[in-house]
Specification:
heterotrimer; A mainly alpha (119); B mainly alpha (451); C mainly alpha (553); A: mainly alpha; 3 helices; 0% strand; flat; B: two-stranded antiparallel sheet; 64% helix; disordered C terminus
Amino acid sequence: MELYAPVLVLGAIGAAFVVVSMVVGSIAGPKRYNRAKLQAYECGIEPTPQPAGGGRFTIKYYLTAMLFIVFDIEIIFLYPWAVHFDELGLFGLIAMVLFLVNVSIAYAYEWRRGGLEWE
Amino acid sequence: MSNAADPVNAGLLLADEPGLSAFGTDPWWITLIKALGIFVFLMVCVLMMIMADRKVMGRMQQRHGPNRLGPWGLLQSLADGVKLSLKEDVIPRGVDRFVYIAAPMIAAVPAFLAFSVIPVGPEVNLFGVMTPLQLTDLPIAALLVLATASIGVYGIVLGGWASQSPYALLGGLRASAQVISYEIAMGLSFVAVFMYSGTLTTSGIVDAQRPIWFAIILFPSFLIYLVTMIGETNRLPFDLAEGEGEIVGGFMTEYGSMKFTMFFLAEYVNMVTVSAVSVTFFLGGYLAPPPITTFWAGANEGWWPALWWLLKFMGVMFLFIWVRGSVPRIRYDQLMALGWKVLIPVQLVWITALAAIRILTNEGAPAVVIGGVVAVFVAVVIASLYAWGRSVKRRRAAEAAERAEERKRMRDDPMYGGFPVPPMTAPHYGTSVPAEDLTPPASTDKEVTGA
Amino acid sequence: MITETSSVPAAVLSAPTITEQAPHIDYWLLSPLLVVFGAAVLGVLFEALVPQARRRALQLGLALAATAAAFVLTVLQGGSIPAGEAGTTLALGSVAVDRVALFLQGTILVLAFISLLLIAENRRGESAFAAQAATVPGSEEERSHILAGSQHTEVYPLVLFAVLGMQLFTAANDFLTMFIALEVMSLPLYLLCGLARRRRLFSQEAAVKYFLLGAFSSAFFLFGIALVYGYAGSVNFARVSEAIDAGGASLFEDGSGEPLLLIGIALIGVGLLFKVGAVPFHNWKPDVYQGAPTPITALMASCTLVAAFGALLRVFYTAFGASVDQWRPMLWTVAILTMVLAAVVAVTQRDIKRLLAYSSVVHAGFMLTAVVAASPEGLAGAMFYLAAYGFTTIGAFAIVTLVRTHENGPEAGELAQWAGLGRTSPLLAGSLALFLLAFAGIPLTSGFIGKFAVFEAAMAAGATPLVVVGVLSSAVTAFFYVRIIVLMFFSEPAETGPTVIRAGGLTGSAIAVGVAATFLLGVFPSPVLDNLVPQPSEEAAEPAVATADGFTR
């Protein structure tokens, strides 16, 4: 816990600064009501009506997020192996290469099927 | 449950990471001084960086940059900050108020955290207490760095979503997709570092670089880290999330006053952090640059290392500005392709090669075998480069053929594509130029646009 | 409750040890799984690199070859287990290779092979699967894919992955391996369910339902694992069993950890019973069986059931074998509920696939009586039942794929449309009648022997009321099976009668194998049955009664 407490101290200082400056910002600034100012900014045209929940957006972002999770988990497996690389030796290397090959095959599939293309 | 009350536990925790014995023993006021020091350093860094950004960019573009406020205009960004705080705090109608206000905080606060594990110097005498120039170190310090980097994304995507505006939503999505894409490559570039350091503690990683910097022996990792570091912080040439030519201000479009400042602050603090991480992981941290130690043994003692650290850090920060001044913004599909199709595969091959060679060296394999493995990997790299080049050429050829076909159709049939075109024989055309002469030569690679 | 507060975290923290030497793994014993896994991975690679036109033949060949090769390897290993020994565990005790696992794996592989034949059936370029599942149903894009003759050849690697999961599910010897196997088995199936060519929305609904409920049950399963781990201090079945004998891990005072164990058993039971499809966790079955492409339904109804029961038997016999008195009442209740409720609801069904789904639920109830018996005979009976039922149900679903509303139309699910089918196509109706009789448990069919074995074991274990309920429920189910037979043979063909399309070679052989197995296992069950029931001499040789059931520990 002694090791982690300083991180929290720094976080608390940062958070205090952020909150205080945002409060100051909201108090110090002028308040001049103007209907147009409260509309969403769309380069001057009437704002597009927003459907509840933000509407739909392209599935590409979901795909990217899923791919990210796959690779993030791969990295999580790689780190302990890298840290204890010398102790794990050849067995660790072979196991990890097999793991990487398996992930790469799925990656190759996604690549070939256009999962990584952005228009 | 505190460790002091439970010595068995504390011993166990620390026994695993022998390098950590110097940490967690500071009196509270030293911790507070260090934390405040880091905070002040970060704030000053941000102000100076914004200044430097504008001035260096100015020089690169043959102009002066801000030079009115303070000596050489140094107080310009401070004045900007004060001005921003005096602006009206507009909260647009229809936004999700709670998330809208929370988003800048979520973006800004974690940005500060990562710096707590950055080592700036070895143990020094601070007001009579021997303490390392580092707020703290954790058995998983490197993961803390990555974790705080990811939490910042929440601020971006939530800010974009809460704004309830198309530009903001799109900007938020773009930014988060970009940041997570580059985070993979960034995470992979650390693997080689951990392989050579054998620890996740930042002080241990710096220590492991005493013989030689990782930037030299792990050059590909370092190079990729530099690219991902720019991608991760949404800086030019990867600043698609706020590309003002495309989607106005991106996720910050609807933000003003101090809330905008917080996003801005988070971006610059993140730059500071990733630069500091690059110094720690690849550039030998606070260790003196190699030639100095040969003739000056004291270079790595006392407060001097902090200077080396600062110099390296400023070098990396300058790189940000330099890249920004030299490289144009790339397209979004190019951005994602670079992240997913270049950086990640290159990393995977590089890590495998490195691991294989290191294992062979450890096991004492003869030089012939190691040379053979190296040769195989080089062959693989060359073969894949060749295959890639061929596929690019093929794709270009196919695209050119498609375009030529398109042009031919346009030429043969004026109505092609559904455009209402008056017949070519219409009287007012008079003596028209033959259609063939109007088309550009088919060999050019340029897209035919407009007319 | 916990006695040594301070030392517990210390013990846990000091646990991470880096093994200096590599663990020894017997790859030969793992080879049936590795073959299937390798083929599945290769299949994904084919998808990425082989041109579309050549994919189907290649994938099908690969999948069939892999299942066949894995079956041969499984049989070889079955032969190599020395007589009198149960088997062995490998990979640090996480996978068991014993007679039960090998028999069930062999069964799964054979059934998967037959299902693959059904899956591969392709009439004039039209398979049972959607041309392009990602398109919006009814859209122009979907039409263009159909016209272009697109195919999802990903089906084959997905099936292989599912089969791999099933193989591992029956052999897993610790809870974590079992959970991984569960997910490897389930995830491809969720996807496959959504790929039906006809009635796309219905199929997608089935897939989503299956996925949500499956994920939910996985969560139960995991939570149960956590509790049992807390109780026993290990996820390994043998260690769990020892811990139960010892009254919990060392941190518990005598018996104070009992609630953890009981809740853990219940939650793990929920996860497994969901996969088995026992009441009250059966709700997914009718919807999913109906919505999924029929060949996939066949795969699920046969192979998944075998795998799920394999896992259920192993968990309750080996890991929780020592606390049989605690879990027996729970399984009693579930078995009775399953047999009664599903049989009653099945009577009201008007759709053939839903009816077969409910019938599968009822059969799960019959097999649960064998689990309740918790004896070597019960195990043998359940194993025989699983194999017999698997062949029969694949045959029945194969027939369902052949009866269409009109030429090139969707399958005729409505039972009313099947009227008089026995007159227009007697061979087909005859086969179906045989399958239905086997389901009903009429003598001279495999179903009868299976039921007899199961009920006999339950009776011997003192579960007579359960057997009575089972027999009554059998009678109810026989009613609706016979009703279909009557409908097919003794009523006038409906005016808007279905079109029976000619069975292709692949479907035909699947039906033929089903008929042959149903008949042969019914008339000559002894070669199989005798090998399953442990010989008396062996039993006497074993020191403890509990280890005589064929499971390794």
